UniProtKB/TrEMBL annotation:
Organism: Verminephrobacter aporrectodeae subsp. tuberculatae
Protein name, UniProt field: Sulfur carrier protein FdhD
Active site: C118
Swiss-Prot/TrEMBL keywords: Cytoplasm, Molybdenum cofactor biosynthesis
Stored HAMAP family: FdhD
Name of encoding gene: fdhD
Length: 280
């Protein structure tokens, strides 16, 4: 299936608003479509753990992905159930986890208050903020053109919410041929990635056999979540941070930035990106 053959997902998480648009020195009263951003509380075994500002779509995927990439659970089977409950002040994602995971979570005593652009809010110590990544053992490598093909497809109709609002990020999962198999969107780039990882696990994809692309920059947390998902490559359309490179080097993660058109910059584990090295 070609990427553009994928059915377009509904633009859930947006709403129409009145707007005065200035154009050519004239004001025109019209309507616009904006992305929704609501408080989403993540609750484990009845105890509130984190409140994020997120797009109210794909929240079961978000709950699963967040639980995995934040090391709250070790595997999807540690989660007994996920319920999404709307309330007057926001949405609560109620996650029932195995007792051993809940005990570990309580011992961490973290009170994380998240924002759509914030990566490490609420951490209690420096060692907790910069956690050692898992080491990726897969030998997976991908032709450079497949990364560019996937990012081109991401911009070519697979972000309906962004097309409607211009205010969201996207994360996508590509296979070895460069076809995008899944895409998730959110006002926060970290949230979009968590949603994608949750969806990949729920649908049974072998994450180690593909790569992740992002419409944003590649920060430390984006690299950390990618490594914890088992994917061996993260390609972003924008730049990367120094701490993201350090983590990627330690984890065995290929980190690619400024992947646009026919160009890209490879910041770590270039052996995972295949191109004709005889041409320099």
């Amino acid at each position: 299936m070609k990427p553009m053959d994928l059915p377009l997902r509904r633009s859930a998480g947006s709403r129409p608003v009145a707007v005065d648009r200035l154009r050519g020195g004239r004001a025109i009263a019209t309507q616009d479509c904006v992305a929704e951003e609501v408080p989403v509380a993540l609750e484990y075994n009845g105890v509130s753990h984190a409140v994020m500002l997120a797009t109210p779509a794909d929240l079961e995927d978000f709950g699963l992905g967040f639980s995995l990439t934040e090391d709250i659970v070790d595997r999807a089977s540690d989660i007994r159930g996920i319920d999404v409950v709307a309330g007057p002040h926001g949405i609560t994602v109620r996650i029932d986890v195995a007792s051993a995971c809940f005990v570990r979570l309580k011992e961490r005593r973290r009170n994380l208050a998240g924002r759509s652009g914030c990566g490490l809010c609420g951490m209690e110590s420096l060692p907790e903020a910069v956690r050692a990544p898992p080491v990726l053992r897969s030998a997976a490598a991908f032709p450079a053109h497949t990364l560019l093909d996937a990012l081109h497809a991401l911009r070519g109709g697979l972000q309906p919410l962004h097309e409607a609002t211009g205010a969201t990020h996207a994360a996508g999962f590509g296979d070895a041929s460069g076809q995008l198999l899944l895409v998730r969107e959110d006002v926060g780039r970290h949230n979009a990635l968590d949603k994608l990882i949750g969806a990949l696990v729920r649908e049974g994809h072998d994450v180690a056999r593909g790569f992740i692309v992002s419409s944003s920059r590649a920060s430390y947390e984006m690299a950390s979540k990618t490594a914890r998902s088992g994917a061996t490559l993260l390609a972003a359309v924008s730049g990367v941070t120094g701490l993201a490179i350090d983590l990627a080097e330690a984890a065995g993660l290929a980190l690619v930035g400024f992947a646009r058109g026919d160009a890209m910059s490879i910041y770590s584990h270039a052996e995972r990106v295949l191109w004709d090295r005889s041409h320099g």
